Task: inverse folding
């Protein structure tokens, strides 16, 4: 079985058939393999802030915050989503209910993170143009040595998707980031091809 077929099988089973993982009872729209990679990256790089673009049900923000708490350095999550849905909120997390690239959101985020270490996860609107805007703005906020993760670069059958097209454009014009091969460790995941890291 090819990796693309394996990804399609897992995508269908986990995402389309609603077998997505839950963290402390809250649904997370992510592959279990991606969650393991996120925990490893957070432990390795120990960011002060994780910007989570795409709150959805709130599970990923809660997971990220718990991982930061386990690191024990006082890291915080800023979770952004333009579309309010019923979500699990946590007092440790800052929630911004606005577009990720709006002027007010960017101003708030920049003020909050200051000169601290910042990691970014992009998992909101998957149109090519929107992700290009996110990459343009948030690449300037990600600090050296930290990750900027672009989710859903490919469709379930392995075809290039909007975020993947935006990634390719971004890597052509921005030489401060490299595309890592973290996704190859577990072969499957929603973040295939999207684990970018800013050069130290």
Result:
């Amino acid at each position: 079985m090819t990796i693309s077929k394996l990804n399609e099988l897992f995508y269908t089973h986990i995402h389309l058939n609603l077998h997505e993982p839950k963290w402390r009872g809250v649904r997370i729209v992510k592959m279990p393999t991606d969650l393991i990679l996120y925990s490893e990256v957070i432990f390795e790089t120990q960011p002060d802030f994780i910007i989570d673009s795409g709150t959805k049900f709130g599970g990923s923000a809660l997971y990220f915050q718990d991982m930061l708490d386990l690191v024990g350095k006082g890291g915080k999550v800023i979770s952004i989503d333009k579309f309010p849905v019923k979500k699990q909120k946590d007092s440790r997390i800052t929630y911004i209910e606005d577009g990720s690239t709006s002027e007010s959101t960017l101003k708030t985020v920049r003020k909050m993170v200051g000169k601290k270490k910042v990691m970014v996860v992009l998992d909101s609107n998957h149109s090519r143009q929107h992700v290009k805007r996110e990459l343009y703005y948030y690449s300037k906020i990600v600090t050296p040595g930290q990750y900027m993760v672009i989710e859903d670069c490919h469709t379930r059958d392995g075809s290039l998707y909007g975020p993947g097209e935006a990634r390719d454009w971004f890597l052509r014009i921005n030489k401060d980031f490299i595309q890592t091969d973290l996704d190859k460790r577990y072969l499957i995941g929603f973040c295939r091809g999207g684990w970018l890291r800013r050069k130290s």
User: Anything to note?
Assistant: Residues 52 and 114 are 17 Å apart (CA to CA).
